[in-house]
Specification:
Blueprint lengths: L6 E6 L3 E6 L12 H6 L17 H11 L8 E5 L21 E6 L6 H5 L29 E7 L6 E6 L3 E6 L6 E2 L3 E5 L5
Parallel strand pairs: 5-8
Antiparallel strand pairs: 1-2, 2-9, 3-4, 5-6, 6-7
Length: 196
């Protein structure tokens, strides 16, 4: 069985398009869980709150598992960085990078980051202006309409949160070890030559 997905353009650099899926792929996941945090060299969480200094390792692993059989999307390599665009300075006084770059090899999709969506926010707010970034999300979450989805950017405000897009048309920090509310919305890259 093949399933069709809808994607929207979030960036056009002239030769390549960056696209985001219009809904979440699969169920909810944590940004990073305790097991993956410890495997990456961290100390087991005693307070149960999680930490964002190793990056979104759990959600990356699950994203790659869920997209590995996508045959019509080319594989690519990239370095996942904890991005800090200048526009965030309007909202946060500090833009401390929380985790070191994470190399990904031969992947079909990645997570959206704050740079992907910051141009779609209203000046000086966290409110999104592009409906396709928050469509198919709901405060009364179901599998078809979850609460939100994770971004790869760690929240600058503390050690426990990662950024997410939620149903209320905004991006916000969310506790990284929460596996009940947020899922994955894949971002892909395609060459414009592939489209013709």
């Amino acid at each position: 069985d093949k399933e069709n997905y809808d994607f929207y353009v979030i960036k056009d650099d002239g030769e390549e398009l960056t696209l985001i899926m219009n809904k979440n792929l699969g169920g909810t996941v944590s940004w990073i869980n305790n097991e993956d945090y410890v495997k990456a060299g961290g100390t087991s969480w005693s307070d149960g709150k999680g930490a964002n200094d190793k990056g979104p390792l759990t959600v990356l692993k699950i994203l790659e598992e869920r997209t590995k059989n996508w045959t019509n999307i080319p594989k690519y390599n990239y370095d996942l960085v904890d991005d800090r665009p200048d526009k965030l300075k309007e909202l946060y006084s500090t833009l401390v990078v929380k985790y070191q770059p994470i190399k990904r090899i031969d992947v079909r999709a990645r997570l959206a980051n704050i740079s992907d969506i910051i141009d779609f926010t209203e000046a000086g707010t966290k409110n999104l202006s592009a409906p396709y970034l928050y469509d198919n999300l709901s405060s009364i979450k179901t599998e078809q309409q979850p609460y939100g989805y994770w971004l790869s950017t760690a929240s600058p405000g503390g050690t426990y949160a990662g950024f997410s897009i939620i149903y209320s048309k905004a991006f916000t920090g969310y506790t990284v070890d929460d596996s009940n509310d947020l899922g994955i919305r894949p971002v892909i890259k395609v060459s414009k030559l592939q489209l013709y």
